[in-house]
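Hi L.,

As promised, DUF4229 domain-containing protein:
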Amino acid sequence: MVSPTLRFTVLRLGIFALTGIVLYFLGARDVLLVALTAIISILISLVALRGLREQMASNLQQRIDQRIERRGGRRDPDADAEDDATR
């Protein structure tokens, strides 16, 4: 099974490439092509890849929780201090 992170990355790149190709054939060139491709592909990804993005975030949170459990429930004191400072 392919990891959600790899699937998300490949799909994001695919959306970016496909958007760029379409815009190229519609006449966009140079900086305009890159800027429009970036903006439009981000918007498409936000909508089309929402479920995959949530799955990827969930998997990342599980990995973090597993690491904390392996430490015996101890958290990194530096990370706690940083969290307290940003609150």
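The CA atoms of residues 66 and 72 lie 10 Å apart.

Thanks again for sending the construct details.

K.
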